[in-house]
Amino acid sequence: MLGSCHPVPAAAVTLLAAALAAAVGRGLPGAAVTVAAVAAGQLSVGWCNDRVDLRRDLATGRRDKPLVSGAVRPAAVTAAALTALLLCVPLSLAGGRLAGCAHLCGVAAAWAYNLRLKSTAVSWLPYALAFGLLPAVVTLGLPGAPWPPWWLTAAAALLGAGAHFANVLPDIDDDLATGVSGLPHRIGSRGSAAVGGLLVLASAAALVAGPPGRVPPYGWGLFAATAAAVLLGAARSPRRSRTPFLATMAVAGADVVLLVVRGADLAGPG
């Protein structure tokens, strides 16, 4: 069951929510509720994704997937996804009505991606929406329910859209063979590698230039590292190498570091 919930991205998003909650001083009770809600949402999305993709994974022989190998039963994954989704509702609302609604909108976008939108030209939109709402999930739980500054929302949305293009790259041929035709599939591997890198680079630029005041040295350093990783990914052929995918993931990691550091200004004026 753990292997079927997409544990790495689920853990990454949950840890990001925890770091942002700590950065804005949510306090232990509020942060715990936020983290629990995000974790439940991520588990529901991961299990839903594996269950929906079972037919395609069987067709392409994805023996690394627990459902394909027979390690878990489809009914168990379906039940787990629905249970996690049901738990996500009260956990989200426990952090505040506005914060809860923002989080549930993001989870709904992710489910819409799994069930339908991944094979459309707007496949990037659920990623942008869900990531873009994550800072609001944290700040709307603060006293006065402040919205995050525009630059943080924009940076998170760009990061999410870039992660979508990067996430598709390793499996793009299998996806095309089984009828998946999201935007990355329509523009091809090389185009997706370039767009994904540029989106995450734009995210880093928003984090560096968006907040008021002088840009600190670590901001310029991470932005330079981001640009170098994007160039490295663009220099290799996506179909013959995993370099573009790995480079974009490295960029996303640097972006997350900058996002968390800049998150100290999360509830300030935008």
Task: Fill in the keyword field for this structure.
Four Helix Bundle (Hemerythrin (Met), subunit A); 2 domains; 73% helix; globular
What does this protein look like?
This protein has twelve helices and no strands. The chain is mostly helical. The protein folds into two domains: 1-121, no CATH class; 148-270, Four Helix Bundle (Hemerythrin (Met), subunit A) (Up-down Bundle), CATH 1.20.120. Helix 2 (28-52) packs antiparallel against helix 5. The longest helix is centred in the C-terminal third of the chain and has 27 residues, at 183-209. The radius of gyration is 18 Å and the shape is globular.
Structural class: mainly alpha
Number of DSSP strands?
A: 0
Binned strand content: under 5%
Summarize the helix and strand pattern as letters. Answer: HHHHHHHHHHHH
Number of helices: 12
At the first level of CATH, what is the class of the largest domain? Mainly Alpha
Q: Averaged pLDDT, please?
A: 86
Largest sheet: none
CATH fold annotation of the largest domain: Four Helix Bundle (Hemerythrin (Met), subunit A)
Number of domains: 2
Overall geometry: globular
Helix content: over 70%
Distance between the termini: 41 Å
The CATH architecture of the largest domain:
Up-down Bundle
Identify low-pLDDT runs: none
What is the C-alpha radius of gyration, as a whole number of Å? 18 Å
Protein name: UbiA family prenyltransferase
Pfam families: UbiA
Subcellular location: Membrane
Membrane topology: Multi-pass membrane protein
